[in-house]
Structures are given as structure tokens and as C-alpha cells.
Amino acid sequence: xxxxxxxxxxxxxxxxxxxxxxxxxxxxxxxxxxxxxxxxxxxxxxxxxxxxxxxxxxxxxxxxxxxxxxxxxxxxxxxxxxxxxxxxxxxxxxxxxxxxxxxxxxxxxxxxxxxxx
Length: 117
Hints:
The model has no long low-confidence stretch (mean pLDDT 68). The strands form 2 sheets. Strands 1-3 form a two-stranded parallel ribbon. A two-stranded antiparallel sheet has the order 2-4. It has one domain. The chain is 48% helix and 9% strand. The chain has 117 residues and is mainly alpha-helical. It is rod-shaped and about 90 Å long. The N and C termini lie far apart (87 Å). The chain contains 5 helices and 4 strands. This is DUF7890 domain-containing protein. Pfam families: DUF7890.
């Protein structure tokens, strides 16, 4: 009787040992990074050509002149900016300029090739 009880208990322990798998810290970090990158959303906004830009007045022979600007903003700031969109995502320059002025300088970066630091 003791022998059967001992074999029964040893099988339970063996089954528990087979089910466990080692989880390494590096694997957990990589999984978290991959899930965060898939949640990122890229949004783009086009500006209406209603007002000429500063650089566009000087170089009329090239046609359209654009200045690329990268901006980091909170969800609330982005929602306020995108709420002014008309005609399928076109923003007026004056609306964008007002929003950019309210942002701290460390979150706005000019990327355009026209800009020389």
C-alpha cells in the first residue's frame, strides 16, 4: 500500500516538473518591445497652400516649397490640432502655427533641407 502511494506521488511530481519551462528575462523584454512597437500609430497632416511660406517667396522658380517639421505632442494636443482638419486632413497654416507656438521648444524640430542650423 505504501509502495502504490509512493509511486502515485512520484508521478505527480514528475508531471509538474515536465510542465514547467524556464522563462528568461531577455525574452520578456523582447516581447514587451515588440508589442509596444505594433501599437504605435503614424499620422500625417497636409497643409493647405493658402499662405506662402517664408522660403517660398524667395524661390518662386521651383514651384511648391515645403518645410518638414517633426513634433512630439501629447494625445490631447494632437486631438486639438486634428480637430481643426477640413477637407480630408488639410490644415491651414495659421491653425498649425498657433498650436506649434504653444508647444515647448524641445518638442519641435525642423527637418526640412531648407533649414540650416
